[in-house]
Structure prediction request, 75 residues.
Amino acid sequence: MSAAQAQVLEQLARLPFEEQREVFDRLRDKFDEVLTPEQVAELDRRAERALAHPERCRPLADVVADIEKRFRATR
Prediction:
């Protein structure tokens, strides 16, 4: 991950949940053009579940750290 990407993620993590959701929605709109309808439906389902149960969600920084750890382990 580049330094710029890390900085964006850090800034995103500081935003209130609703503002994070707005950023997510805008980014998702860009990707909807390349995703299948099934993939879009799955993302929508997961987003609704997260909104309904925010106490079950993990901080973005933790998720990114786990992904980076897994990626490094496979190299």
Observations:
- The chain has a mean pLDDT of 86.
- The chain is about 75% helix and 0% strand.
- The first helix runs from residue 3 to 14.
